[in-house]
Amino acid sequence: MLLTLRVQGTRYSLRTGNCSRSRWLASNAVVEKSPPPAQPQLEVNGSTYATDSWTNVTPKILSYLGANKHLQKDHPLSIIRQRIVNYFYGAYRNQRGNPLFSVYDKLNPVVTVQQNFDNLLIPSDHVSRQKSDCYYINKHQLLRAHTTAHQVELISGGLDNFLVVGEVYRRDEIDSTHYPVFHQADAVRVVTKDKLFERNPGLELFEETWKGSLADPKLILPSSKCMDQTKQPCHTLEAVKLMEHEMKHVLVGLTKELFGPRIKYRWVETYFPFTQPSWELEIYFKNNWLEVLGCGIMRHEILQQSGVHQSIGYAFGVGLERLAMVLFDIPDIRLFWSNDSGFLSQFSEKDLHNLPKYKPISHYPQCTNDLSFWLPSDVEVDAGFSPNDFYDLVRTVAGDIVEQISLVDKFKHPKTGKSSVCFRIVYRHMERTLTQAEVNDIHKQIANASVDSFNVQIR
Ligand code: PHE
Which Pfam families does the entry link to (predicted)? Predict the structure, then answer.
């Protein structure tokens, strides 16, 4: 049961660690009410932040900050990070033979709405901004939902070839391939005309008509929904094609270095607000096409905002858990958070290229319990009650012993007009057998916490 893409009827459920077509294509704003925060201030990573009606980070989520699994010795995520970084060090070198790319793997995951969304031209009503999808500290700050959030600050600081690696936070469903914290690597490469056309000095990066206005902020295009997969209006076709060729060559090289030279892959056109044209790279794995990364030619407006007017860039982002699950055959995303030596001792970075297949520590039994409740009057699923709020509550109360949750039933009572929901919760401990009494106790705590938090009535 590994990494099959299950669409569970939600708009954005297709991701296992990274970018999904459905997530970025969808666009509908949902305004949600939420209870006022209990405390006016929050301490995160040593800094104090004001809270407001947008605050939805939980103590459980904040406890992941600084865990840095991608830097933990012998951890599978750290092994994947090192392999990606080493590949880029080798793929691009300067004239002295030194790596061209610099790596940022300890950037603060607390970012502004501007960094995570506005700078990347993500429309103001885009679904990915919703409170039900992100962990907000307050209206202006959140835990980054992708490592792409650091693009503008790094390019503005003068960098042109860099990798960002770190954990990202997204509110989502609970199953073996989703966890509210996972890891991404993002890369940017920006080149000048002289560099790109080293061997064809007669060619141009920009269309003649745009040349005079490349630095003019008025010319930022309202092309956030532009699906033209050929090129952005300001670029020449030659520039885009050459950049596309280089990017795809490097990314196929990375895929082959990770999965072996015989891996079957394909490019799929897609949409991201921050790149145009955009693609996803899929690999054929266990009889399925599996999306492993998203990439594209950077929107010129992003470079322009960063003070870079005469260059063109490519960017990509990849989810580390998904790569690690495939490479090591790790069946459950919760295992990346396990401190069990039975798990951790299986991986060693001494030989980065010896990738052992994960051997299950053992199979402990699952225990399934349903929880049904009536929502308050006038509240419905996705109109006042978001399943993601419930999933967070479950994570806070029960932690990692919950393996899956699914919304198995919802209906509206014809007379009272009240909505009822039923969630199926599958409990399974990773390291031991749970007793029925223990599960019943946690299940009861979840029920009580639901009554307190959502004002529901248990059925
Ligand atoms: N940030 C995107 C995601 O998380 C991935 C991406 C990065 C796509 C950079 C294109 C360029 O879904």
Answer: FDX-ACB (PF03147), tRNA-synt_2d (PF01409)
